[in-house]
Design brief:
Blueprint lengths: L17 H8 L5 H13 L5 H15 L5 E2 L3 H5 L11 H9 L10 E4 L2 E4 H19 L8 H11 L6 H11 L3 E6 L5 H18 L7 E5 L2 H18 L2 H7 L4 E3 H5 L1 E2 L2 E5 L11 E4 L7 H10 L5 E6 L12 H11 L6 E3 L8 H10 L3 H8 L6 E4 L5 H20 L3 H10 E5 L8 H16 L12 E4 L13 E6 L5 E7 L2 E5 L7 E3 L2 E3 H4 L4 E7 L10 H8 L2 E8 L2 H9 L8 H6 L9 H4 L12
Parallel strand pairs: 4-10, 4-11, 5-6, 5-9, 9-10, 12-21, 13-19, 13-20, 20-21
Antiparallel strand pairs: 1-3, 2-3, 7-8, 14-15, 14-18, 15-16, 16-17
Helix pairs in contact: 1-3, 2-3, 6-13, 7-9, 8-9, 9-10, 9-11, 15-16, 15-21, 17-18, 21-22
The structure holds adenosine-5'-triphosphate.
Subunit structure: Heterotrimer of RecB, RecC and RecD. All subunits contribute to DNA-binding.
Organism: Kribbella antiqua
InterPro entries: Coronavir_polyprotein_1ab (IPR050534), P-loop_NTPase (IPR027417), RecD (IPR006344), RecD_N (IPR049550), RecD_N_sf (IPR041851), UvrD-like_helicase_C (IPR027785)
Length: 611
């Protein structure tokens, strides 16, 4: 137990007493968790310490991206830090909770089997479940002409190399909701483009108007990539007639599609009362969608609109709470609500990166190490104790290329150089973190150019936008470079989903230097070459999902800096989040006429009224 008497440690809640103090001092819960628990228990006159502890642990779980606290699992999950603590016995803990005023009106907490929720997430999870069940319970969409559908599938997905995609498109054509999954380069976008053409043809045969299509993704970068890939597919592979039928379309972020409201950051213009007008809605990079955003999207989709959720469930989950895509894959398919549409064969890499990604995904550590050490052209494993020199020679040419183009006032060349190489770290801070490597690379630039970078804004500074700025039209995840103009002034050129924009540096508020970026932030984007710094062995972020996400950011070449131990540790650990959506979706269908909440008894106590 790491008991510390440091009264200046901000993680310690000085006012905590009893069991909360013990858990806080052991480092299991933070001061913020203690405050949440103290407020709730004081407000509702709850004196039971185990209930207060449960509140603090829910707050802790949500901080780590979970939707709820699994009371049956939390002891295991805390690991060694919890060894000397007195944990409540599960049945007694659950009984204390069931009897607590915190689980009665106004229901700050909700209990679902052994899962404890804050009310907001419980409601969102329930809403997502109900909306998905309702969509799945409708009669399947009608096929206007069965023979034309089969002929269309053969035309759009010809030959045996398109077998998987043809089957996936056929499945999607026959259901309202489809979860289309696959790793990088498995042909998800190709399938989407073909499916859209197929549905447009069916609409034409049925004498309906051209379907109104929405392409969307959680970030601007991912939305732009989706639009570009679908357009490329249409122009390279599909006939003029198929392309014509689709008309024009643009991809937008989910926030933009749902319509931002100036008075709320969690509510949108389109909701249950004002549904989206589209007939087909395709969401790419669904693994990055949080539970809250999925709830907002599902309530806004018309029941008779098709929803195609595309993504890779093996990637890291959303930055905000939830693991929606993984839950949907398991819950919707296992619950018998929809048929699976899974793509497994990679068509892009055909090389070591694809092999490596598959071995990581399929949990084959020996194969992972074999590919890393195979000395192939595309994958390189840097196993040195001090990798700085290796990194310097790998990274500096591209960093200097950005700077030379920026000095010449050439944004195209600077942005192209920026997209050539990404240095990815697990953490923001520490010796393997983004901040450290941003500073190190800036020092290398100074050494190389003999030009000290005194100012925050310097020529060639690559930047990452970290928050949406609707007024400027730049979005979280957009990247840019600082360019010198002929008159000597600096401008920041941003490659936004709306095209190239440029600003005076002082106008940009939420910006970070982008010589290095976190793997979490790199989700939804790719670079020609990627260098991954494996975090230290003690890092809690070192998981298979983190490693897989990092590896799959590389289009052409990948360099992994680490050692065998870090690779094995990453492979052995999962970034699991506690959620209840897959359990909810796999429960048996309820008898008609009852709402789900009435129909399902709770083993551990009342659920509260149906609202
Ligand atoms: N059946 C196929 N046979 C040969 N090549 C294919 C096939 N399907 C797709 N491709 C090609 O493979 C590449 C990847 O396809 P696509 O972009 O559709 O995959 P993806 O799963 O959307 O990739 P990512 O999500 O990684 O961007 C493209 O160049 C595409 O033209």
């Amino acid at each position: 137990m790491t008991t510390t008497g440091d009264e200046f440690d901000s993680a310690l809640a000085l006012a905590a007493t009893g069991i909360l103090r013990d858990f806080n001092q052991a480092g299991v819960i933070l001061a913020a968790d203690v405050h949440v628990a103290s407020r709730l228990t004081t407000m509702l006159n709850e004196a039971n310490e185990s209930v207060a502890l449960a509140c603090a642990l829910v707050a802790r779980a949500v901080r780590a991206g979970s939707i709820c606290l699994d009371l049956a699992e939390v002891r295991n999950e805390v690991g060694d830090d919890g060894d000397e603590l007195s944990w409540p016995v599960l049945d007694e803990w659950l009984a204390a909770l069931a009897a607590s005023p915190l689980l009665a009106a106004p229901y700050p907490l909700r209990l679902e089997d052994a899962r404890l929720y804050f009310d907001r997430y419980w409601r969102e999870e329930e809403q997502v479940e109900l909306d998905l069940r309702r969509r799945a319970a409708q009669p399947a969409p009608e096929v206007a002409d069965e023979a034309a559908l089969l002929a269309g599938l053969d035309r759009l997905f010809p030959g045996s190399s398109y077998d998987e995609q043809r089957t996936a498109a056929q499945t999607a054509a026959r259901q309202w909701t489809t979860v289309l999954t696959g790793g990088p380069g498995t042909g998800k976008t190709t399938t989407v483009a073909g499916l859209l053409a197929l549905l447009a043809e069916q609409a034409e045969i049925a004498g309906e108007r051209r379907p109104w299509i929405a392409l969307t993704a959680p970030t601007g970068k991912a939305a732009a990539r989706l639009e570009e890939a679908v357009r490329r597919e249409l122009s390279d592979r599909l006939s003029e007639q198929d392309t014509e039928r689709l008309g024009d379309f643009h991809a937008r972020t989910l926030h933009m599609l749902l319509g931002r409201r100036p008075d709320s950051s969690t509510r949108f213009r389109h909701d249950r009362e004002n549904r989206l007008p589209h007939d087909i809605i395709v969401v790419d990079e669904t693994s990055m969608v949080s539970l809250t955003m999925m709830a907002r999207l599902l309530e806004a989709v018309r029941p008779e609109a098709r929803l195609v959720l595309v993504g890779d469930p093996d990637q890291l989950a959303s930055i905000e709470a939830g693991a929606v895509l993984a839950d949907l894959v398991e819950g919707l398919v296992a619950g018998g609500h929809i048929k699976e549409a899974e793509l497994r064969t990679s068509h892009r890499f055909g090389s070591e990166i694809g092999e490596l990604a598959l071995a990581v995904r399929e949990d084959r550590p020996e194969d992972v190490l074999a590919v890393l050490r195979s000395s192939g052209e595309r994958v390189h494993f840097v196993e040195e104790d001090d990798p700085r020199e290796a990194l310097r020679s790998a990274l500096l040419p591209d960093v200097l290329a950005i700077r030379i183009a920026a000095e010449a006032g050439d944004p195209d060349a600077a942005l192209a150089a920026l997209d050539r190489h990404r240095l990815l770290c697990a953490h923001r801070e520490g010796p393997w973190g983004v901040d450290h490597w941003n500073r190190t690379i800036e020092r290398w630039i100074t050494e190389e150019t003999e030009d000290p970078l005194w100012d925050t804004w310097y020529v060639g500074r690559p930047v990452l936008v970290t928050a949406n700025d609707y007024a400027l039209g730049v979005y979280n995840g957009d990247v840019g470079v600082t360019i010198r103009r002929p008159d000597g002034s600096l401008r920041v050129c941003i490659d936004s989903s709306r095209g190239r924009l440029d600003f005076a540096p002082s106008r940009l508020g939420n910006i970070e230097t982008l010589h290095a970026m976190t793997i979490h932030k790199a989700q939804g984007s790719q670079a020609t070459e990627v260098t991954v710094l494996m975090p230290g062995e003690e890092s809690r972020l070192l998981t298979r999902e983190l490693f897989y996400t990092a590896v799959t950011r590389a289009q052409d070449r990948l360099r992994v800096v680490g050692n065998e131990t870090s690779v094995r540790l990453a492979m052995g650990r999962r970034a699991l989040r506690a959620t209840g959506l897959r359990q909810r979706l796999t429960l048996e269908q309820q008898p008609s006429g009852l709402t789900l909440r009435e129909a399902r008894p709770n083993r551990y106590g009342p659920r509260g009224p149906v609202e």
